[in-house]
Design a protein that fits this description.
about 450 residues, mainly alpha, MgtE N-terminal fold, CBS-domain, Tetracycline Repressor, domain 2, 3 domains, three-stranded mixed beta sheet, about 65% helix
Length: about 450
């Protein structure tokens, strides 16, 4: 129906139809229709609808919408000024510098100052996430005065679930859930409800610290203070969920040996996809040269016992698979804070025990296969399987710690990298044992 209304240029009816959709439905609709039609639909949205829908779109779609609104300066200005400061900052971060600067000029003086301030904080810092839209009250307020203040200033607040208590210099004293204020005696003062037990984030802290704080304290919002304890903003759970999704996507792509995260492979240009994948692939090609060199040095044993070749893929793949499992566990645990860099030596003993059990079990399996296929090398393949699984597991466990020690993302210890290293070790172990045993 919507496509037909666009085709008929029945804008009045189309605008009426769009009022029946909620923001989530409208966002899906704009992402599904052809790009030209998406611009038309967005232009027909009310000011409130446009703000809510824009925040739900992906960054590529947001960029396309902004480009489409370039001819309608009034609509563009309204949209940018209406966006929540944290959402607007997140959008500007994704744009080239000169484009972001051009759009900032569409903001009114107040919103422009807020945006410049947020963009001035270090990338990946909590300052980039926070919003200055919150409600703060004084400890001497009565409950009635507090509600009068909330009614007056709470309209544009990011959340009213938590109200913040500050002194005359805006130093944070406490935070109180709105439920406690609602249930309190109207004649009581706010200071009667304060227990001075609150959790605050520093504006310069890394965003991962915020993720951990929300996980540990189960809050919907947390205050952000500067080094002097002055309240300058808040971070809400929806902002943290966006960061968690971005971090997970980035780590997932790194573990697959991508240079950077790709949000939408369908709309990403071929050249960008190529650049993201070629660097690691070429690096791994050169690393695999070592596997070839190791194989060439054992040509004599391969010619003498051809049956060794049958088990080669099975054995070296097992080492890589064991390493990938171990690395996945370590990377995830490091990311969530369940283990720390200093815990590496505690995990070696446990990993040795687990990988030995895995290696023995897999050695029995490969021995059973060898008993039918090549009984003369049962000991070779069994012993190799045990050692390869041990080596692969230890490589997979230690690499994330090594990367973390050198201030690199542990997710860079990707599955292809671990598999390549394990392959090289597997070839050397396999044919060294074969040479020793078979003479």
């Amino acid at each position: 129906m919507i496509s037909q209304l666009i085709k008929d240029k029945n804008w009045k009816s189309l605008k009426q139809v769009l009022t029946d959709y909620d923001p989530i439905q409208l966002a899906h609709l704009i992402q599904e229709v052809p790009e030209k039609e998406s611009i038309i639909l967005f232009r027909l949205l009310s000011r409130t609808q446009a703000k809510d829908v824009f925040q739900l779109l992906s960054h590529p779609d947001q960029h396309y919408i902004i480009e489409g609104l370039a001819m309608n300066q009034h609509k563009l200005s309204d949209l940018l000024n209406d966006l929540e400061p944290d959402d607007r900052t997140a959008f500007f971060e994704e744009l080239p510098g000169e484009v972001a600067q051009g759009l900032i000029q569409h903001l009114n003086p107040e919103e422009r100052n807020i945006t410049i301030q947020l963009l001035g904080y270090p990338e990946e810092s909590i300052g980039r996430l926070m919003t200055p839209e919150y409600v703060a009250i004084r400890p001497h307020y009565t409950i009635e005065q507090a509600f009068d203040h909330i009614r007056k200033f709470g309209k544009n607040s990011e959340t009213l679930n938590v109200i913040y208590i500050v002194d005359d210099n805006w130093k944070l004293l406490d935070d109180i859930r709105i439920k406690e204020i609602i249930l309190a005696d109207p004649k009581k003062q706010i200071k009667d409800l304060m227990d001075f037990k609150y959790v605050a984030l520093n504006v310069m802290d890394d965003q991962e610290k915020a993720i951990k704080a929300f996980s540990d304290y189960d809050r919907v919002a947390l205050p952000v203070v500067n080094t002097e304890g002055v309240l300058i903003g808040i971070v809400s759970i929806d902002d943290i969920m966006d960061v968690v999704e971005e971090e997970s996507t980035e780590d997932f792509h790194k573990f697959g040996s991508f240079q950077s995260a790709i949000s939408d492979p369908l709309s990403t240009r071929v050249l960008s996809l190529y650049k993201n994948r070629i660097v690691w692939l070429m690096l791994l090609v050169f690393m695999n040269v070592f596997s070839g060199a190791a194989l060439s040095s054992f040509e004599h044993i391969i010619e003498s016992v051809v049956s060794l070749v049958f088990f080669l893929p099975l054995i070296i793949d097992s080492g890589g698979n064991a390493g990938s499992q171990s690395a996945t566990l370590m990377i995830r645990s490091l990311a969530t804070g369940d283990i720390k860099l200093s815990d590496w030596y505690k995990l070696i003993g446990k990993e040795l025990l687990v990988s030995t059990l895995l290696g023995v079990t897999m050695a029995l399996g490969v021995a059973a296969i060898a008993s039918f296929r090549a009984p003369e090398i049962i000991l070779v393949v069994s012993l190799t399987m045990l050692l390869v699984v041990l080596a692969g597991s230890l490589i997979g466990m230690l690499l994330p710690f090594i990367f973390t020690h050198f201030k690199l993302d542990p997710a860079t210890a990707s599955a292809p990298l671990i598999t390549t290293i394990a392959d090289i070790c597997g070839v050397i172990i396999y044919f060294s044992i074969a040479s020793w045993y078979l003479g």
